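question for whoever is on the cluster today: can someone run the full assembly for these? two chains, 223 residues total. i dont have access anymore since they changed the login thing
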Amino acid sequence: EPEVTQTPSHQVTQMGQEVILRCVPISNHLYFYWYRQILGQKVEFLVSFYNNEISEKSEIFDDQFSVERPDGSNFTLKIRSTKLEDSAMYFCASSFRGYEQYFGPGTRLTVT
Amino acid sequence: QKEVEQNSGPLSVPEGAIASLNCTYSDRGSQSFFWYRQYSGKSPELIMFIYSNGDKEDGRFTAQLNKASQYVSLLIRDSQPSDSATYLCAVTEGGSEKLVFGKGMKLTVNP
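^ ran it for u. tokens below:
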């Protein structure tokens, strides 16, 4: 069964550094998302992406965040200057028709 | 602020019993409703979705939606120890694909 994949599984970075989290959505899916989950808290929406542009973003997704689909398979989330409070699990999700969303295994980001 | 509320739990049931999980949502414009299962340290796994009032069954799982009362529930029949996980309710608003999640309900199925 096709799955969303994410790399790396764990990323440790220092405050102020840039990180790029990578995702390979399910191959025939057209809608892509990033969510995050701070330890012990709810899963929170960050951004949705369709037809090579952002379709919706949350208040969390400020100028420090960006997304890109650099080729036909990858979908990336960049955090330009990480803060301690960016430490969380970051989940990529994809959807064929914008309804049912399937999540990847996540990247644990630790900012020190 | 759109809210999705779940009973904080935890819920503990014996093996073979029916587990009942409930969720309420604040936005009357919500259109799509999802249940995800999340094992500890893992990502959310989609197990059920429902878009219309009424019941939807898939194997041992039944999702129930009542838009007038703004609640959605998940029943797990013949609960198994492998069902032990946190169950997340998620809702989308009209015109949006954004999933709004509840805090989750931790279910433990005791052998």
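summary bc i know u wont read the tokens: Chain B has a mean pLDDT of 95. The two ends of chain B are 40 Å apart (CA to CA).
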